[in-house]
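Why does residue order matter? Because the sequence determines the fold. Keep that principle in mind as you read this record.
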Amino acid sequence: MTEQKTPLKENETSVWDYFLTKLKFWGKDQKKDQEINPEQKPENMHAFPWLTIGALVFALIAQLSLEPSPGRTATLGIILYLVSAGCLIGAMLRKEWALTSLKPDQEVGIHTHFRVEFLAIGIILAVFAFLLFGSGEFGFINTFLWVLSLVFLFLAFWQKENQVGRKLKTIWQQLINGQIQIKLSRWGLIVLAVIAVVLFFNFHQLEAVPPEMVSDQAEKLLDINDVLNGQSPIYFPRNTGREVIHFYLTAAYIKLFNLDVSYLNLKVVAVFANLLTLFFIYLLGKEVGNRWVGLAAALFAGIAYWPLVFTRVALRIPYYPLFVAPVMYFLIRGLRRGNIQDILWTGFFLGLGLHGYTPFRIMPIFVVLAFLIYGLHKPGKKKTLTLVYGLSIIVIISLVVFLPLLRYWISNPDLFTYRAFSRLTEMETGFQKNPLVIFFENFWKASVMFFWDNGSIWVHSIPGRPALEVVSAALYFLGILALLIRYIRKRQWIDLVLLVAIPMTLMPSILSIAFPGENPSLNRTAGATVPVFVVAGLALEMVIRSLRKRLPGKLGRIAAILIVILLVAWSGSNNYNLVFDQYYAIYRASSWNTTEMGRVAGFFIESIGTPDTTYAVGYPHWADSRLIAINAGYPGRDFAIFPEQIPATANDPRAKVFLLNLNDTEGFQVLEKTFDSGVSWQYDSAVENKDFIIFFVPPVQGVAN
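Structure:
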């Protein structure tokens, strides 16, 4: 076994480093900045932090003024937000507030040690797997070689760390000896309370909200049904192509627990993906702040209307933030600690995320930007070379994880790139104006969607309202401003990475140049929930920290607790109303009642009919006949029939049922003309304006279904 080392002199200066030292911005005196650190020299410790609280109050009032209402205007909100910003800047000058300190960077760079033989084996296995993935499906041999190549690549770069192993060994020994003791501290009780609240918001009325499927969910369930029937594609070509993780996870869940292919089970798996995202949001908040920042970020993200809605729709959307969160967490921690294990996991989740949801394809660019930001703030030849080494590892690992899709991309370039390029280029339609102008207009709309307008797509949003409710939006504003202030004063690379992460994760929506009307959209911006709620968590912790520093003893503690309870309760009430009242009502009114149609079809099949004689007569912009079949308990079938096909069914002597749109006079006339014995009646739907016609044809006498 051999090891490769790159010996470098720590003080050796490169041309790049010399260039950086000449940039005045980067060369300011750090000691001078430290002397005015408000954490070190607060003034008048026991003075009430009026300006900090004023900044919060004015931000809340500003966002209240921007909530949807008749004749809404942004003028008052902008003025109040400017006042809030002035209060926060004034509070900084009075040294009232301070963001929680960032953890210090480890001066030791990434270790450039690796095992050549393991690296060679991993690459060879990856090449063979790549060739075998030409089949377009996951098979036993190509998947085994693919996984094995990843194992060897991890072994090639992995550095031994015994700390985790020792902890696990200690816990195991205590468990065997019956020495495990569970102690609930105040922190533990708070965490349990947060978990309970988050679980409530994620699972409450899960079956009913949203109440119906749309055609996108039909496509998903059909793909899952294909997996359950033995298919294993690398990329699903149905509906212009989709990545696979959501389908395989849901199929595994259904298979493991012997469940039906249903919308509810699709939702459950999406919710668990969201809960895992919250765990990594907590870790990221803890990494860039402390455990209170992480907990606040996870709590506000866990009860927020935006992620709750796109999770409950149960498309692939949750898999964008699901992988953004661990990529950001391991990337920041890896760069800060110089830890190769974190770098490896960054590459792993970066590659895995590319199998989740198309907008995640922006994240490799973000990772490169993060390395560049770190390199600009941490000059030194050894640092630069180890950063190149670390980035190279991420590229290798992520590329191998991405390998099946890479093979598919090479074989089917048009299908793989269609979704992204149809929005970015003139593939489907011409640009409405200069593309650069559209880009900047889209950038602005996406940037202010948190406060003003999150788009018009009713499936995964409430059209025309801000993406964040009042409390989250106000905290996000204060957090962004506080980060900008701290970055200007201290120039800490993590602050800039957090700030850059937001526009980068919005970029898949911003880049809808050919269809600017689709921007902003809460699905293509879903990855932004990760940095947005971390920033909100930083702001809340900042306000509470200011109170606790300025008000002594119990008074400060009580004031902090009351403010937290007030803000969380207000946010929870807002989000509950948005998700379970407003969104539910809009979705219910906008979607077709295929559940009721499926119930009618299922009753007919179970009583006197068959799936072969159950029909939904096609009508423009009406219910998806595949959804009716799924709701009837027959996924994979399509009950569709068109008026001109109806006469051919007269030769079948079995009982038949036809479901028609209330306005389908043509289809109804054909049925009456074809079946003299037919009986029709109007189904009284529980949803206003969603009644439909049931046309029943009894079987020919003496014929049994």
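The longest strand covers residues 656-661.
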